[in-house]
Design brief:
The chain is globular, with a radius of gyration of 23 Å. Helix 1 packs parallel to helix 19. It is built from 19 helices and 22 strands. The two termini are 33 Å apart. With 538 residues, the protein is an alpha/beta fold. The strands form six sheets. The protein has a seven-stranded mixed beta sheet with strand order 8-7-18-19-20-17-21, sandwiched between helices. It folds into three domains: 203 residues, FAD/NAD(P)-binding domain; 123 residues, no CATH class; 145 residues, Polyamine Oxidase, Chain A, domain 2 (Alpha-Beta Complex), CATH 3.90.660. Strand 9 and strand 10 form a beta hairpin.
């Protein structure tokens, strides 16, 4: 057994852990990151699973990464290069047509007008409204969650400021804000549009990473959460990191190292060492011990509070709250190595005033299997009763079209995010056979839209929520480290009284996506946690 001493220890080398490490190291702290795997990133990784083919194994798009983090940590200098994803196309199930929305505004409006002149007119108003609402809510991403139960001016002032911020909205936008906080994404979109495939595709942003259907109350907020993306100053933008999302983690790791942080791989933490009510270090599973007055967990709340420390060090109420913390896994991933691009029947012929070039360019964006709201809700029904969806919602991109280095010349990688795949199955645990059956269901569904797909597959990787848990450590494979429901946001994330990145154990902090403001590759929790830690260290 060996022992080592540092100023701060970070448990987990995911993007939030690396962000916290970089900020602490930049402030002059001697920092060590301990990552259980052979590479950094957590769920933000790129791996060459099939020779020559690089898969963005779990997360696959970048949108919410905070500009202040990019700036403070000089991430472009360390390899951050986000390529824009400028379109979403929804092919019809019978191959007869498609809806295409891209950076060409007027072409998008003309495309929508083919289905509904009313929707084409409404689209601008909706876009402006959601832009305004996302801008209005955006300050929450950088806000330290205030505690409304404390009669302390330092707590009440930020809360009052936040309340004033929303009350200053004009009447129409205030009503819209309340609707977004309470409605389902389907009901909210029903108030704007009438074209079913359009509503279904847009509602998908409200269910990503949740165990909810598009008609479940609260999903309108999740939809809004995904509207807060920002890339290179372009608000509501989405992109793909060159080299896959593992490139984001590598840029953060490079930044942290440049400030003096040390990162150890294959270093799984077994427990936090607590003495006299204070965290003083960690013990690895191999018996090594590391000591520091600051210990930070970037793991999810279940692991941070119920596994790494003994419950005797925590208040009973906190233990109960964390036990009830909703962290159901609902997402799967299917990554395909392809001999060529699949031929989507609906995309063979340009419709209306579209051109072949516009359709070809659409392959560089997202392709959404979301033909109707009923289709989406039935996919959720399967999961609700403990089965993976037989015809799931699938959001796919071709990383190799955006970055040719992701696949050998002439070959392609297809990255498919899938809802729904419940962690808990009605007929028992996930097995290899069930995982492959899930993969078959995804490929069978895609083949209804691209009949030649099966003949193009060189290899595949199927990841269930159990696989995500086993690989990354995320409880139940929940990609947001906890539902983004109203009962688990702001000062209630992960539990009332413990939303400011501290814990009841002195010197022990939390910085993962299970803290405010939640999941996605934002690095906001990591940054805010680091600022609080440095405040305490003064």
């Amino acid at each position: 057994m060996t022992t080592h001493t540092y100023d701060a220890l970070i448990i987990g080398g995911g993007h939030n852990g690396l962000t916290t490490a970089a900020y602490l190291a930049k402030a002059g702290k001697k920092v060590l990151v301990l990552e259980q795997r052979h590479l950094v990133g957590g769920a933000t990784v790129t791996e060459e699973i099939i020779p020559g083919f690089k898969f963005t194994v779990f997360s696959y798009v970048v949108s919410l990464l905070r500009p202040e983090v990019i700036r403070d940590l000089q991430l472009p200098k360390h390899g951050l290069k986000i390529l824009p994803l400028e379109s979403t196309i929804t092919p019809m199930r019978d191959g007869s047509d498609y809806i295409l929305r891209d950076a060409d505004h007027w072409a998008t409006v003309r495309n929508l007008a083919r289905f509904s002149p009313r929707d084409a007119e409404t689209y601008d108003e909706y876009s402006h409204t959601m832009y305004f609402m996302a801008k209005a809510v955006k300050p929450i991403l950088s806000l330290l969650p205030p505690d409304p139960t404390k009669y302390d001016p330092r707590e009440l002032m930020p809360l009052a400021k936040l309340g004033k911020h929303f009350l200053n909205l004009d009447e129409e936008h205030l009503y819209t804000f309340i609707k977004l906080m309470t409605m389902s994404s389907a009901d909210f979109l029903d108030e704007w549009f009438e074209t079913d495939p359009l509503k279904a595709t847009m509602s998908a942003s409200g269910i990503i990473g949740t165990f909810l259907g598009p008609r479940s109350p609260g999903t309108a907020y999740v939809l809004l959460h995904h509207y807060m993306g920002e890339i290179d100053g372009v608000f509501r933008a989405w992109g793909f990191q060159k080299g896959g999302t593992g490139g984001v983690a590598e840029a953060l790791a490079s930044s942290a190292r440049s400030f003096g942080a040390e990162i150890r791989l294959n270093a799984a933490v077994d427990q936090v060492i607590v003495k006299g009510g204070k965290a003083v270090g960690v013990a690895l599973k191999n018996g090594d011990e590391f000591y520091a007055p600051i210990v930070v967990s970037s793991l999810d709340p279940k692991l941070t509070f119920l596994k790494l420390v003994d419950k005797s060090h925590l208040p009973d109420q906190l233990v109960s709250d964390i036990q009830r913390f909703n962290i159901k896994g609902s997402s799967g991933k299917v990554n395909l190595a392809l001999d060529a691009l699949p031929d989507f029947t609906a995309l063979r012929t340009p419709r209306g005033q579209d051109t072949p070039a516009r359709l070809r360019a659409a392959y560089k964006g997202a392709i959404s299997i979301s033909p109707s709201l009923d289709y989406m809700e039935r996919a959720y029904d399967d999961a609700k009763y403990g089965n993976f969806s037989q015809r799931p919602y699938i959001d796919m991109i071709f990383p190799s079209l955006l970055d040719p280095d992701m696949a050998p010349p002439g070959k392609h990688v297809m990255s498919c995010f899938v809802q729904y795949a419940p962690y808990e199955l009605a007929d028992g645990e996930w097995t290899d056979a069930k995982r492959e059956a899930f993969g078959d269901a995804v490929i069978d569904t895609l083949s209804e839209y691209a009949p030649n797909l099966k003949n193009l597959i060189i290899g595949r990787q199927v990841r269930s929520p159990k696989d995500i848990e086993d690989t990354t450590g995320l409880s139940q494979g929940n990609i947001f480290a906890g539902e983004l429901s109203l009962s688990q946001l702001l000062f209630l994330r992960p539990a009332a009284g413990w939303a400011k990145y501290r814990t009841p154990i002195a010197g022990y902090y939390q910085c993962g996506s299970g803290t405010h403001p939640g999941g996605g590759i934002s690095s906001a929790p990591g940054r805010l946690a680091a600022l609080e830690i440095l405040k305490d260290a003064k």
